Amino acid sequence: MTEIAFKTARQLAALIRRRKVGSRELLEHYLSRVERFNPRLNTIVAFDLDRARAAADAADTAVQRGERTGPLHGVPMTIKESFDMEGLPTTWGVEAFRDHKAAGDSLAMKRFRAAGAIPFGKTNVPVLLADWQSYNPIHGTCNNPWDVTRTPGGSSGGSAVALAAGLTGIEAGSDIGASIRNPAHYCGVYGHKPTYGICSPKGQTLGGRVSGADISVVGPMARGADDLAIGLGVMGGADEIDGSGWTLTLPPEKRKSLADFRVAVMLTDPVSEVDREVTDRLQSLADFLAHRGATVDDRARPALDSAEVQRVYVMLLRGATSGRQTDAVFAANLEAARGLRPGDESYYARMTRANTMFHREWIGLNERRHQMRLAWAEFFKDWDVLLCPAAASAAFPHDQAGERYQRTVAVNGRQVPTTDQLFWAGYTCLTYLPSTVAPNGLTPGGLPVGVQIVGPQYGDLRCIAFARLLEREWAAFQRPPGYA
């Protein structure tokens, strides 16, 4: 049964429909693997087993009756801890919310259930979903299945680990600073960051908030590109209020082969230098695409200044999360901002200013963001996708000392601030663009590397279609050693 644990959700649903395996049988298989591997990984942190078993039994009965089923009928799944799941904790790793339990399901959870999925647990996250590591005082540290001394990424780190280790069928995450893309890259799975606004985040907020955050999105994670399309189809669309006025219709991707694509390739950038182990894999992919007949260019870029993009992104990102401050913390940050040197453009300085900026300044930054959005639209008139890194390196060793902006990561033999690699998150998500991270092989040391596939606004299906072609012809999900 080991191999079945690593099949895609689409394959699992097909096996269930054809009665090759039962939903309850598959659920129990995953639970046996969780019992075996979760202690070393600490990825699944809350369980809803009684309801999952009852739902799996009902799914099997429906198949026996020949009833019509959804695209994920009978497939066991987990979901990121930040999504409400009735009766289970939603804490975002914050001590103050340790005892909080969700009164109902998030909209994403409701839609996965309606699609036939069998949710049985929730996966680990960092505090406030604000790190490229996944550890918190409530649930502890989540480990990368490729090397448990390393981070699985964050903030959807537990989601990526559960997929990579074969503990679940499909997953969902959220992303404001590469929180889907970074763990997918570090753990060797697939993740899709949708176009901003096309997937409702309802029920994926903390402390009863009902408003969605700027830049932040929710989206699917999986072991295969087809599953991303299925997951996006499940999660996409307006909530019940907005749905009275608009429906989501994403343009289908008509290109059928890699040779049909015009591909811009971005290996690195002065704002965030990328380790050679990552750029070598991306260059190999670019060479492969050219050999396959694709039009490939490593100089094509939108008419944007990378340093300015990083500045605007960090300011709007930290502005989007500034509402988390208590009155006391805001007062302290306001005092700190007054003491900053005018020319200080460090991450700490930008973060502190953003936490306390006037709305007038936010409006100016937002205007510049939309000018950048138009520059991207012009770029995508000539190019179909942009390929770039998802992060500056492969997964790095656990490092929980000090504040995140004080930590470093090794890039080409030098220690650089981990916050530099926010560039690879914000270069595209600042301007609402979709991107898919797909496996792109392994480093010489045996760690996964992903490629970020960026498309035009609402070009989500194009990104996923390109990932599907790479999966068939270049690189696909690989099972980490030791999880048979």
Q: What is the β-strand count?
A: 15
> End-to-end distance, in Å?
9 Å
Would you identify the CATH H-level superfamily of the domain at 2-257 and 459-473? Amidase signature (AS) domain
Give the second-level CATH assignment, the architecture of the domain at 2-257 and 459-473: Alpha-Beta Complex
Q: Which H/E pattern describes the elements?
A: HHHEHEHEEEHEHEEHEHEHHHHEEEHEEH
pLDDT under 50 segments (min length 5)? none
Q: What general form does the structure show?
A: globular
* Beta-strand fraction estimate: 5-15%
Strand order within the widest sheet?
Answer: 6-8-7-14-15-11-9-10
H/I helix tally: 15
Question: If you consult CATH, what is the topology of the domain at 2-257 and 459-473?
Answer: Amidase signature (AS) enzymes
